[in-house]
Specification:
Shape: elongated
Strand content: 5-15%
Bound molecules: uracil
Order of helices and strands: HHHHEEHHEHEHHEEHH
Strand order of the largest sheet: 1-3-2-4-6-5
Oligomer: single chain
Structural class: alpha/beta
Number of strands: 6
Distance between the termini: 61 Å
Amino acid sequence: MPSVLDPDLRRALAERVRYCREMGIYDFYRRESRFSDPTVGAEVGELASTSQEQREEMAARKSAQVAKTADKNILQVLTSHPEQSVADPVAALKLIREDLGDCTRCKLHKQGRKQIVFGVGNPRAELMFVGEGPGADEDTQGEPFVGRAGQLLNNMIKAMGIRREDVYIANIVKCRPPGNRTPERDECETCSPFLMRQIAAVKPKVIVALGAVAAKNLLAINAPMSELRGRFYDFIPSGPNGDSSWPGTKLAVTYHPAFLLRDPRQKGEAWKDLQMVMNYLGLRPPKKDE
Ligand code: URA
């Protein structure tokens, strides 16, 4: 059975999906077909020797098979993203950024954000850091982690023997919450599909979740930092990632740099988390004169 959808229908569906996404609707569910019998084997020749009743049943099974194939295709159209057809992460990230547009999907867009802070860094990074959400400096400059917490993150990256340009940095939400409050659940849920797509495009070997908000949102676990840190999690971004050969990534949790600025005694613990990541990636700290 060919699994090709009529191009006009495909276009119409793609339009419909785009419209739904603009309305903030991302998830589509398939209602099970009335015809659940997977055994559809009747050939035309068989029809001649069968009763009218049997023929009707066979015809119904055949159309159920056609409906199933169309269903599958429709589902693919409904759940696929434009970047899935490109292998180049630079192009993929560009498509995701375009799809995000001048986002108004959650209330943060009307609560004083200056601009969307999409993400920055090497599109082919082996290491990705995910924070909570932009603060005032990030909102002004349009880049994550450029304020005081960003300076500390830069130092942490340097201590790992790499440069900020080598990694990819993003946040759970892409717009500054007013007064730097913690992003709310609906805001995280609306924004995180775009982060998932960024992760699927970059395909890092390790993600470091900075702080409890990032960790809890990525892992969907509600636990204190003391329980979340100190180990790797297997992580596959939710939603279609289009590359079945990619096994996903490891995820580690450490303290948010803003927390470390408030409580520098915890820096040693954060360094242990980073060393675990360095061991996995085969990184070594720079020598004194490097
Ligand atoms: N804190 C975050 O979580 N993200 C930023 O980009 C800056 C500060």
